[in-house]
Specification:
The protein has a domain of 189 residues: Periplasmic binding protein-like II (D-Maltodextrin-Binding Protein, domain 2, 3-Layer(aba) Sandwich). 46% of the residues lie in helices and 13% in strands. It contains 17 helices and 11 strands. Strands 1, 2, 3, 6, 9, 10 and 11 form a 7-stranded mixed beta sheet that branches. The termini are far apart.
Amino acid sequence: MKYFIIGLVICFGILLSTGCKRPDLNVDVINPEQLEIEFWYGLTGVQGEAMEAFIAEYNTTQKTHIIKGVSFDSYDVTAKALEAALARGKGPGVVLLEDYQMYSFAKKGGLRSLDSFIDQRPNFDLKDIYPKFLAQVTIDDKIFGLPIYGTTQILYYRKDLFKQAGLSEADLMTWESLADAAKRLTVTGQDEILVYGWEPMQGRENLIDATINRGGRILSEDGTKVLINEEPWIYTWEQFRKWIHDEQIMKVHYGGEGWQYWYATIDDVLQGRAAGYTGSAGDARELDFNIIGAQMQPYWEGFESQPVGVHNAHTICIPTFTKDEIAMAAFEWIEYFTSKEMTGKWSMETGYLPIRMSVIENSDFRSYMEKNEHLKVAMDQMKKTTSITYDPTGGSIYEALRIAAEKVEILNIPTQIALDEAQDVAQQALDEYLIRGAQ
């Protein structure tokens, strides 16, 4: 018994000398006087690791509160969790959403306006935020989220495979020339395709980008008619259906949990099973730029003046159920992440676009961009992008487009059928929304 007591004393002394660590978790015990702010976000992989590092760095600077990061498999899973939290009136103090998700939650009354917090920070320079991103978080002259990074979809291609085929970046200027290049790059074995010429990222996003590049619109000018089965949509989506299913020069990965389909697409290119893919500016840390090149999205022949893709602001928001004391501390975290220093650091760490114009004044950032062509490509493309129309129905139009994209890309259903069905569902949802608004 004497030795057992001595052992306990020694163990207790070790615990004290190691900063009160819990041996089962190996983490610091939280100071009970610190507020714990739960932060939900849908990032995994290297981007999730980068976010964890940012949270840890921030927490070392705080005495009154700490951020507790909670990672979900994707932005969509995060949004669904927030919807459930709002229903029970309890959840995170702060949450990361895509811009269209922020719009939907804000219109439903689920997010706090941030204007009062910004007004209390005289040094918080709103004018320094890129106007394109700031416009995406402003609804009815109120700010319901702040962009902490931006993104746009760009092209990534295998430099070696392009060189071997006698191709260059010039062959990615138009969708027509990209398809021609994909034909030349596709390698077929006896019973299978060994190398696909191109891999669009599965889902509605790449298809919407390419449609907007052809002059397509989601809603009419007056907001009363859904336009998703008009010529730009039918032509664009049918081209992709043909490339994927009829000509088999392109492939889409689908299924799995969270971002699994995304990583499968990237792996195909890194391992030489595809010559290129359309992906996010934020893919940079996943790629090897010794073998990968980057290029802006193409335009359709005859549509050179149309926007080249869509830009998206990923926004950090405070739910309505968040108490004032928690909300004030949460905004300090938002202010930290949106600072010139941190937005530049995040961009260099991940490849995502910075949200402040003044970041270009930072010599480290300028030097990084000069040495990393992918970031320069993404920033150049952002100058030519447009924002997507927000879905006034709360998600019914986007959901109809998601289902239509699966029908076209995965099930090989003719585009006219898929988009006509989507149009009927979306228009009915819009009509019901407009009737409710008129009552």
